[in-house]
Amino acid sequence: MLEALSIKNFAIIEDIEINFQKGMNVLLGETGAGKSIIIDALSLLKGERSSFEKIRTGATKAYIDGRFIIDNKELIKEINDEYDGLIEDGELIVSRSLDISGRTSIKLNGRMFSSSATKTIMNEIIDIHSQHQTLMLFDEKEHLNLLDKFIGEKKEFADYKEAYQKYVEEKSKLEELENKVIDETEIAYKKAQIEEIEKLNLEVGELDKLETLEKKMANFVRLQETFNNIDTLLDGDNGAISKVYESRRLIDYLRDDDYEEYSSKLNDIYYSLQDINSALKDTLKELNEYEYSPEYISERIYTIKRVMRKYGNAEDDIFKAHERLVSELSLMSDYEYALNKQKEVVANLYLDTMRKGEALSLIREKYALLLNKKVDQELSELSLSNAHFKVNINRTEPRSKGLDNVTFYISSNMGMPYAPLKDIASGGETSRIMLGLKTIFSKFSHVETMIFDEIDSGVSGKVASSVGRKIHTIGEDLQVIVISHIPQVASFADVAYEITKFVSKGTTKTKIRELDLQGFEENIAKLLTDNLVSNESLALAKELISNSRK
Q1: What's the rounded Cα separation, in Å, for the pair 299 and 200?
Q2: Beta partners for residue 124, in sequence order
């Protein structure tokens, strides 16, 4: 929920702070006092585009800060998994600044975020209803998504998605085959490439081995001279090996156990020197006996690298190129067979996709009937008992989300035919239908705060009371913030705020205060009698508030 909101230098607001409560919060005040500005500020916290013209006259920067308390553990985990532990202890502080130079920044818990990332996160936390959102709700492109959201997670969704993806992939391959022109010159060229690679007769790891050997061969003369000198020093007349042997023998002649340790160490040195000398001789022998000359090795390396450069930068690229060329040549050489085989694959996947799509469609049809009943119930509670809702489903060819076109239809009055939701003319009906749909769909989201900006447009009397009662019902599960000019709606508030504007030193400013019961009653009285408070209007206000709380 939105716990606190701070706004500085935004439009006519100089500096205000609001502490919101759970339940139904209502913002009251005369037109132009700044109620909608608060909604605009909240929209900026959601990552919406900023209007730098709204920076307060005389100021260079505007600041908006919101503190949200999130109770949904699942949502916290999703956000933290995606954004590296962003939320701690269920608290999220969102800060937005606007600079008169045209710069803006958004921070979530002190970390900079882009507008798009902010929208992704905040759309899961707070929902702001506006006229634009009503248009989105009536957009037929969204109806399928809303129905699927109502259905929830079902195995049929995953089954269809998997089948459709395979079908699309193989269909794309078929289209490539169908558009391919078989060129005899290209066939000959691929054959030549394959022949060149096969003639190379490359072994795995051969290039590395050859380059290592080339380095050794380049140093062969120097190695030979060095190893021969070492042999003389170790094993020649009066060499190190014989001297160590003689030293050990002299100690042994002492026949004294106190010196046995030194004899053993000299013995180890003696054999170690012999091993070293033998290993060096073997290395030199291998180089002398290698079957290829330095010239052959150099030429072989050059040939391998020349072929390698045609297909990539590594030895493995030659093997991959050979595999690809053989496959392509096979397809080209037997084009008709490959084409018919791919058509068969695609046909089978199409049938599988249709089967999975039909199963998904049946799920949608089942839940569409349930949604119809739920929306009708909501409409009845909103004084639209003669209105009826219907989810219309038509089959299509396979698409990413199934085989269905989904459109919401409404019959506004008894005996009237069903018509697309978007064709509703009455503003009051539009608001109530939207509220009924939002009541249902809000239960299938993570959102904990819903904001309604003049949701009661076009309604009055008993109809307005039904709207207020419905919003209050939503507020039993979620935090609701409402801007209202209709007393029958505002009277349902759990907590109310009065927003007023005043002039100070020639400048218009806005202030806000949380209303006590007396202040609330006076504000409702103003709504009932065009801003006039009298004993009669106060009595009506008290009665209205009392009835709303029954």
Answers
A1: 12
A2: none
Count, residues in the chain? 550
CA angle (476 as vertex; 475, 479 as ends), nearest 5: 40
Taking the C-alpha atoms of residue 455 and residue 433, their distance in angstroms, rounded to an integer, is: 11
Residues ≥6 apart with Cβ < 8 Å to 505: none
What is the per-residue DSSP string for 497-520?
EEEEEEEETTEEEEEEEE--HHHH
**Sign of torsion, CA 330 332 335 339?**
positive
Which one, of 348, 344, 449, lies nearest residue 25 by Cα?
449
Contact criterion met (CB below 8 Å) for 498 and 28 = yes
What single letter denotes the amino acid at residue 181? V
Whether 66 and 448 have beta carbons less than 8 Å apart is answered as no
Dump strand ranges (E) for 412-455.
Answer: 419-420, 449-453
Helix 461-474 vs helix 335-381: angle between axes, to the nearest 10 degrees?
A: 120
**3-class DSSP state for residue 44?**
helix
Separation of first and last alpha carbons in the chain: 25
DSSP 391: E
Contact 440, 417 (CB under 8 A): no
Other residues' Cβ atoms within 10 Å of the Cβ of residue 522: 17
Helix (H), strand (E), coil (C) string for 133-187: HHHHHCCHHHHHHHHHHHHCCCHHHHHHHHHHHHHHHHHHHHHHHHHCCCCHHHH
Asked whether the beta carbons of 2 and 59 are under 8 A apart, the reply is no
Q: What are phi and psi of 364, to 5 degrees?
A: -65, -40
pLDDT by 10-residue block (mean), the chain, 550 residues:
94 91 91 82 90 85 95 92 92 94 92 93 87 65 89 94 96 87 77 91 89 77 78 83 85 82 86 86 70 77 90 91 88 78 95 97 96 93 89 94 94 85 70 83 83 76 87 90 90 93 82 92 88 85 86
The DSSP output letter for 55 is B
- Contacts of residues 253-256 at CB distance under 8 Å and 24 or more positions apart, as own/partner, are none
Determine if residue 44 is left, alpha or beta; phi over 0 gives left, psi from -120 to 50 gives alpha, anything else beta.
Answer: alpha
Q: To which residue do tokens 């989904």 refer?
A: 406
Interstrand relation of 2-10 and 13-19 (parallel, antiparallel or unpaired): antiparallel
Maximum Cα–Cα distance across the chain: 132
